[in-house]
Specification:
Order of helices and strands: EEEEEEEEEEE
Shape: globular
Radius of gyration: 13 Å
Structural class: mainly beta
Distance between the termini: 40 Å
Number of helices: 0
Length: 118
């Protein structure tokens, strides 16, 4: 069973930066495509970014393109989300996700809260 544990959330002022990390265990990390989703208050969970098993391809939601960067380190079993130029509307619980196929995720972390103050 794959376990995903997020870290790095917190409170930051608008315009600031945060780096989220997710450590995976229970399966060969390089066999997993990985991603980040978020759930804003009162909204459904939404896609943020994902990355293929090799890291050769990444995709982003339009709302974060140019501000967020997803990366992975297969030697450390981690996927990261660097978030810059944060806005109050980025406030959400951020979830790490993984799966065998890119874009199809069935493993989820418990989530980490990101709060951006104006």
């Amino acid at each position: 069973q794959v376990q995903l544990v997020e870290s790095g959330g917190g409170l930051v002022q608008a315009g600031g930066s945060l780096r989220l990390s997710c450590e995976a265990s229970g399966r060969t990390f390089s066999s997993l495509a990985m991603g980040w989703y978020r759930q804003r208050p009162g909204k459904q969970r939404e896609f943020v970014a994902d990355i293929t098993r090799s890291g050769a391809r990444t995709d982003y939601a339009d709302s974060v393109k140019g501000r967020f960067t997803i990366s992975r380190d297969n030697a450390k079993n981690t996927v990261n989300l660097q978030m810059n130029s944060l806005k109050p509307e980025d406030t959400a619980v951020y979830y790490c996700t993984g799966g065998s196929d890119y874009g199809q995720y069935n493993y989820w972390g418990q989530g980490t809260q990101v709060t951006v103050s104006s």
